Structures are given as C-alpha cells and as structure tokens.
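Progress against Task 2.4 (sequence-to-structure conversion) is shown through the following example record, which the project officer requested during the mid-term review.
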Amino acid sequence: MSWLNMNNVELQAIRKILMLEVTEAADVIGDGVSSSTWQSWESGSLAIPDEIQAEIYSLCQMRETLLGETFKELYDKNDGSFNAVGTLRYYSTLKAFLIDYPESNHLCWRLHQSVCSSLFAEGGDVELSTDIPLDKRKYIYKWFSFSTPEQLEHKRIEALINSK
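Structure tokens generated for the chain above:
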C-alpha cells in the first residue's frame, strides 16, 4: 500500500481487514457520508478524500501496534519460540464488547475483531471464545480499556490542551 495516495482497491481491502461493512465504514470512518459515496470511493469513480486516507492509515497503525505488542507478549526470549497465547475473548456483538469496554465504540469493536481474528488465523496456538473472563494483564485488554502507556499519555496531553 502506498502511504502517499491510497487507491480504491486498497481502501476496500483495508475496510475488509477491519471487518467493516460499507455502511459501517461510511458512518464511523466517513463521519456519516452515505454508503453510495463510500462505494464510489471503492469503485474509483470518486477520489478518496485525504482525511479518509489519514483515518484509514491511523487505523492500520493501531492494528499493527496491537498485533505487534500482543506478539511480543507471546515471544519466549529464552528459546526464541512463541508461546501459546491461549484463548482470547471474541465479541460477536457491539453490545457484548461495550459491557467489557464501556468507554469504547463501534470502530474499536471492529478493530478488536480484526486483531483477534488475525491472531487466531495466523498466530499459532490462539483460540477464540465468547464466554471466557478477560485477562486484564494482557496488552490487548489494556489497549481497549484505554490504559496502555501510549494512550494514557495521549489522554494526559488531550486533557492539558482542553483545559486551556
């Protein structure tokens, strides 16, 4: 993917990796644009606005961070192998996701689904379940609870800016 100018095929591919339907992408990434507008971007009949490209790139970076940090937790530094992550909680519905992550939103739910699905499909000994307790020590839980060091620093800076 070019980080300078996303094409329509790349937009569609990333939307699908993020597990978003066209209507969801239009609403949550496109800030309420119509589904037909989003489809026009994906078909190439309309240019993809810079702010949409920036949001998509940001989501890709978040996803990569989540995958990378979760893999770091799995890596056994003693023998260079990967340990089984065990079972991750998978949320089939937004309602279920918001019970555990009440400060979150629809887009985070889909990002969580995308990351968990990738870890399951490509990460080795990973299982998914809808009814296990969360392991609050894991990075993925901390990230979606907005309590990773990066997110806490971002919140602190945002609060300082908003207080002025």
